[in-house]
Design a protein that fits this description.
Blueprint (H helix, E strand, L loop, with lengths): L7 H19 L6 H11 L5 H17 L18 H7 L2 H19 L1
Amino acid sequence: MNKKKYEKTEMIRLWQTYLEMLCLQDRKEKYSKTAYRNVHLQMNEGRTRGSYEAFMMNISTARAKAGLPLLKGYKPSMPNYNKYLDKLCVMTDEERAKEFVDDLKEQQQKAA
């Protein structure tokens, strides 16, 4: 089975999901990582639970390397992670939004 490549748009969505859960964690509000995962898997056909969990650990790995706060339950333990995550660590919200839109346009052009 071929692994489905993570597009920038999906990586940015997962980054935002991570930040949303981190915000809830910081405010000591209850939330369900499982619910977040299930929404993502429904939106991204072909992704597995293991793929999602590994990617969230990849985010933790990049964030730990950058000295940023981490989400409990996703240990930074993935030495071979997507280095684009290092870039997301230093981007502003506006820069991430622009990357998202640019990548979406590129995907649409490829599909046309």
